[in-house]
Amino acid sequence: MRALLVVNPAATTTSARTRDVLAHALASDLKLEVAQTAYRGHARDLARQAADGGEIELVVALGGDGTVNEVVNGLLHNGPDPDRLPKLAVVPGGSTNVFARALGLPNDAVEATGAVLDALRDRTSRTIGLGLVSGTPGTEDAGVPSRWFTFCAGFGFDAGVVGRVEQQREHGRKSTHALYIRQMVRQFLAEPNHRKGGGITLERPDADPVRELILAIVCNTSPWTYLGNRPVYASPQASFDTGLDLLALSRLSTPAMARYATQLLFSTPERGPHGKHATALHDLTDFTLHSQAPLPFQVDGDHLGLRTSATFTGVRRALRVIV
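Above: the chain's sequence. Below: its structure in token form.
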């Protein structure tokens, strides 16, 4: 099998020596080409070339969730076609690796490489659903390019936290779970409208709008994220085999923040955050989030700036993954 290994040399949990060892291990079973990313969006460009070229059968992403997201968007730049497009394999190299772990892969890069090689030898794979977010027709964001996401997107508060973390990383801070928690507290203290309902409205076909939301977390799988080795379930029913799930909150006063943060921390595969200010929806295919003012927006932990609207589509059987 001819394969392309896309390596993020800035991956936070693998050294150059480790990445060389992993590439050598993969090359023992594959006709392997190796490409290192050199700029933001490079992994997307490499995967797009692989999809268009017609010779690569497998693209392996070695990096964090951001690298994986870029590879997925490159593979699917002309839309999903799991029977024709190269398959995807993932070797985790980031700080959290939500997508790889949601697939059942070990969080250790060496062990995950072994699992991928075992799956290749056994010819095992699965076809997963993905989320697609697009600009909303008739709004100022109508022309924003569509973006695929593998495990989550966020509009409002959580995206603001992601943006703050990215700013810290640009100043040389390492991406750690402690950094995320500090920035979450700072975002909460700085958020001007966290005490009462916010300006986000949820619209979906054949349903009344849900208004005055402060944040919206869209999940394509569960768990939503990890704190170290602890999984956090914002939408416990979310799955690669269904549409999208949504958790939205309409209040983030200090007591509400403490309550929902505790519910998230102790969430389980059976129960996530709940209460009168929480809206939890499962297996959505199409919906739109509107905001009265521009709000932070993120997909798969990548901050994409400010948006006033976003239209979401859950696409079943979008991509074949080696696992």
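The chain is about 30% helix and 35% strand.
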